[in-house]
Design a protein that fits this description.
The chain is an alpha+beta fold. Helices cover 21% and strands 27% of the residues.
């Protein structure tokens, strides 16, 4: 991601495996632009759960068979940080009827969760020298590694954020950048058929998200695995506290892009 915008995660699946092509056509050629028509939405990129996962980390560690009991598709919508989330979600609800297809009951999509995250850090790249990337500049969106976690308790949240040293992974070949986000206390919905957050914030979810980009997925996961197996991932940082004192268990999921970064085709109203 080029800028530190807020983001909306929307998970979904085709209603059946044989409708996968129809589902992607519907999503790419109808639904995306209907959402991007709403002021405040800047862009969207769609991803599919990768068959390349970090085998020692959840969810693959608990559910080795793909799709690891997870939704197969993820849409990430970039949202202007200056946009008031309450106004944005209100606009989504008010324009929902405009996004209904001719036969909504037969739409090929099955909705998963929807989660709104506010930008917590700017995107960060490596400060260490490492071999230059061989990825072409015009190759499109990178594969991503979505890592969610929570501070073990409210009183260690600031310490956990000071500890969260992103440069540990960024120094490995294959890693391009990372940005961190925090689960918003403002939740909304794109589709009323989607599951709604239940209970109080953080709704049984992790409260922080790190969005890593790979410029070489195989190389990045190889070096990350080697560091994990040899115990060198954090060993050089003597000030590193026990993770279970600061942070609840992470979730680690890798996705491959299935679209370019899509921007609105609709003209914006002049201010």
């Amino acid at each position: 991601m080029a800028e530190s915008n807020n983001i909306l995660f929307v998970y979904s699946n085709p209603k059946s495996p044989e409708r996968d092509e129809e589902y992607n056509t519907w999503f790419n050629h109808f639904h995306l632009q209907q959402i991007l028509k709403v002021p405040g939405f800047l862009a969207a990129t769609r991803y599919k759960l990768s068959h390349t996962q970090l085998e020692w980390m959840p969810p693959m560690g608990q559910n080795p068979a793909w799709p690891h009991e997870r939704d197969r598709y993820l849409s990430i919508y970039e949202i202007d940080r200056a946009a008031d989330p309450r106004d944005l979600f209100r606009a989504l609800r008010d324009t929902e009827r405009e996004r209904v297809s001719k036969d909504p009951a037969n739409d090929p999509v099955e909705w998963g969760g929807q989660w709104f995250f506010e930008a917590f850090t700017h995107p960060e790249t490596s400060i260490a020298f490492k071999p230059p990337s061989t990825r072409p500049a015009d190759a499109g969106p990178c594969p991503i590694w979505v890592v969610t976690s929570s501070p073990a308790a409210d009183e260690v949240e600031d310490e956990n954020n000071r500890w969260y040293t992103t440069q540990v992974n960024l120094r490995y070949p294959g890693f391009k950048s990372v940005a961190r986000f925090k689960l918003s206390r403002t939740q909304g919905t794109i589709d009323p058929r989607a599951p709604q957050p239940q209970g109080e914030w953080p709704y049984g979810r992790h409260s922080y998200l790190a969005l890593w980009e790979f410029d070489d997925l195989i190389q990045g996961t190889y070096y990350r695995r080697r560091a994990q197996e040899t115990g060198t991932a954090m060993s050089r940082y003597a000030w590193t506290p026990p993770l279970n004192r600061l942070r609840r268990a992470d979730d680690h999921i890798i996705y491959d892009p299935v679209t370019t970064r899509v921007t609105p085709i609709w003209p914006r109203p002049r201010e």
